[in-house]
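Format notes (please read before filing issues)

Several people have asked whether sequences and structure tokens are stored in separate files. They are not. Every record keeps both together, in the order shown below: the sequence lines, then the token lines. Line labels are part of the format and must not be stripped during preprocessing.
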Amino acid sequence: MISLRSDADRVALAAAMGRDALPRDRTEFIAAVSEWTSNRDKTAVAEQLQLAGVPAAPMNRAVDVLADPQITFRKVFSEMTHPLFDAPMPAETGPAPYLHIAPAEFRPAPMPGEHTREICQKLLALDADETDRLISEGVLFTQQGRS
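Then the structure lines:
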């Protein structure tokens, strides 16, 4: 991502690209910058432009997020295991460490039907017999192996 705030940024960008000037036409400008950046490492481009005084930063795509140094430093993701998946997967632990907000409980998503009885009792005020009837009729279901 490159941000041009002024003509001075435009001149600095042109110099970083090894050009005397950049096209004023938007389409030609984008083509020139795209050509220059297309075969360069995005982090190196951002660093070069920042050194020249041009606001720039690498844009993360989904595949880049887990390796981003800031994301890694802030421990935004942790490995989460879940019975429905063969291998652990990255799960967001929180956007940042907070001083006065306790971290949320870190647990996998519930299994399908895992909380059926609890929800029926606490939220729907159904007794155990009515819950059993709805389960036996196929209206509700419980987690496999648990009823």
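For reference, the curators noted about this record: DSSP finds seven helices and two strands in the chain. The radius of gyration is 27 Å.
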